[in-house]
Design brief:
44% of the residues lie in helices and 20% in strands. The chain has a 4-stranded mixed beta sheet. The two termini are 29 Å apart. 17% of the residues are buried.
Length: 104
């Protein structure tokens, strides 16, 4: 579950700083999930490839498939709920939807 953020500019990204402890707590509560932070200033290419336009942006992947990407800091309960929803996703259904919407 990557979180895209930035430390640049005075005083930096306020929402990024306020979301950091929520993100850290969730990573401790869910050791079975890979949590990562991507500094969009230091890693501009991956951020551009992920089409990050606002920070912080939280992304969720399941089985290597991107299933969530939204800018904005989440409160702890909302992040907990999001993690549960991603965990409960039926990936066979998600892949079928993706294949059905592929114009090729």
């Amino acid at each position: 579950m990557p979180s895209c953020w930035s430390t640049s500019g005075p005083p930096g990204c306020g929402p990024c700083r306020s979301f950091a402890p929520v993100f850290e707590a969730a990573s401790t509560e869910h050791p079975d999930i890979l949590f990562a932070k991507v500094d969009t200033e230091a890693r501009a290419s991956p951020a551009a490839a992920a089409q990050i336009t606002s920070i912080p942006t939280l992304m969720g992947f399941k089985d290597g498939v991107p299933v969530y990407s939204q800018p904005g800091a989440l409160p702890a309960k909302a992040l907990h709920d999001l993690i549960g929803k991603i965990h409960d996703l039926d990936m066979d259904h998600v892949r079928a939807q993706m294949q059905a919407s592929d114009p090729r």
